[in-house]
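Lecture 7 notes: from sequence to structure.
We start with the chain below.
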Amino acid sequence: MSLTSTPATRGHARSVVVTSINDAITVAAHINDQAFSVADLRRLFEAIEDKSNWKNPIRASIPAGNFNFRMFDEAVAWFHGSRLREIGPDPEEPGFVIVEGPGYAG
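Predicted structure tokens for the same chain:
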């Protein structure tokens, strides 16, 4: 899968969109039988990372849904070596959930 993104604001990942399958990729993760390259995971990670330092803990708002959570969780696992946890609905953004991650585990 390839992803397109624009800079996220306020830790929101609403700008990350799955667009198409790219067969010429190195697969880094599979989610629901869909392949994601390292570049795909990087775009997801960059949408929610702490912009002051990528190693810092994460607190962000992402679109609700198991598939969305799994995509972002795989991205964080790839770059941080840790997992996200879902905190709950984002009271400021209907249809979004707040997620947190402990930061780089290296």
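Points to note: The longest strand covers residues 58-63. The radius of gyration is 13 Å.
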